[in-house]
UniProtKB/TrEMBL annotation:
Record's bilayer topology term: Multi-pass membrane protein
Signal peptide: none
A GO BP entry: transmembrane transport
Domain ABC transmembrane type-1 positions: 84-294
Location(s), subcellular: Cell membrane
Keywords (A to Z) from UniProt: Cell membrane, Membrane, Transmembrane, Transmembrane helix, Transport
GO cellular component, one term: plasma membrane
Transmembrane segments: 27-48, 89-109, 121-142, 165-190, 211-235, 272-291
Biased composition (Low complexity): 1-12
Organism: Paraburkholderia tropica
Descriptive protein name: Carbohydrate ABC transporter membrane protein 1 (CUT1 family)
SUPFAM superfamilies in UniProt: MetI-like
Keyword Metal-binding: no
Length: 301
């Protein structure tokens, strides 16, 4: 009699567990649905819409005309595109200075001394400023007639007016707020370091650079990945400082793909051609981020 009663009760438990699991999955789906819809409307749809638009000739008002790969052919035959691509690569290379310098500042500020909060706020202040303000500040700084650079060097240097110096000057201005951003990321990562591992390494004789390289830096690997990815995205979408400081000039020498895309869409009403530039920029960004993501996953495994 007891065996006949125990069988239905034992069979009911898996059913209850499966029903509870289905309810949990349904609840998770309901929670994810608004974010998924928003992500689809704001990210996925614009990506495919830009790819489709790049095959058309459209001024934003009249009827679209299908031109196939004509926009891409024209793009790869234009000298301004290669100038913008070269400048984007220069931004990518020099912007990689932000994570290590930000890490240095974070290590310096990760102390419990009196007044360190005020110092942290001073280091973080440039990141709070908008790109327009940063551009104006550095435009005054580079001014060859009354700028601070003239007072430092003793003579004026036309940084923004020189085609060979303008890109470097704008990148230096962009590094000013980007470095504190990486610094904040690393300060957050330093608070999550396991102190027991650090103490065990010190007991084994590790100290100084060896302690940092073999114990602290490996624990900051996720933060380093985020800092590099966000720095790459910031370098590839650089626009505001160029628009404020040089307008892509002189003679398109400081233009990048993002500004070139804006220039063609807003000034010349070439929406399809501008979309082809956006697709190329998206492809470069995607390849770079996927490369770093696979590298980080390989190291984790």
């Amino acid at each position: 009699m007891s065996d006949t009663v125990a069988r239905p009760m034992g069979a009911a438990r898996p059913r209850r567990a499966s029903t509870s699991r289905r309810q949990q999955n349904r609840a998770a789906l309901y929670f994810l649905l608004p974010g998924g819809v928003l992500f689809t409307l704001c990210v996925i749809y614009p990506i495919f819409s830009s790819i489709a638009l790049s095959f058309y000739n459209w001024d934003g008002m009249t009827e679209k005309t299908f031109v196939g790969l004509a926009n891409y052919i024209e793009l790869f035959q234009t000298d301004t595109f290669y100038t913008a691509l070269k400048n984007n690569l220069l931004w990518l290379v020099l912007f990689q200075l932000a994570p290590p310098v930000g890490l240095m500042f974070a290590l310096y500020l990760n102390q419990t001394v009196r007044g360190i909060r005020i110092v942290k706020s001073l280091f973080f202040a440039p990141f709070v400023l908008s790109g327009v303000v940063v551009g104006l500040v550095f435009s005054w700084f580079y001014d060859p007639t009354f700028g601070l650079l003239r007072l430092i060097l003793g003579h004026g240097v036309p940084v923004i007016g020189d085609p060979k110096l303008v890109t470097y000057g704008i990148i230096f201005a962009a590094l000013w707020p980007q470095t504190p951003f990486c610094m904040v990321l690393y300060l957050t990562g330093l608070t999550s370091i396991n102190p027991e591992i650090v103490e065990a390494a010190r007991m084994e004789g590790a100290k100084g650079f060896k302690l940092f390289w073999h114990v602290i830096l490996p624990q900051l690997r996720p933060v380093t990945f985020m800092a590099i990815v966000l720095t790459v995205i910031g370098a590839l979408r650089s626009f505001d400082l160029i628009a404020v400081m040089s307008g892509g000039g002189p003679f398109d020498s400081s233009t990048v793909l993002a500004y070139y895309m804006y220039d063609q869409a807003i000034k010349y009403y070439r929406e399809g051609y501008s979309a082809s530039i956006a697709v190329v920029l998206f492809a470069i960004m995607l390849v770079y981020i996927v490369f770093h993501l696979r590298r980080m996953l390989r190291e984790e495994h």
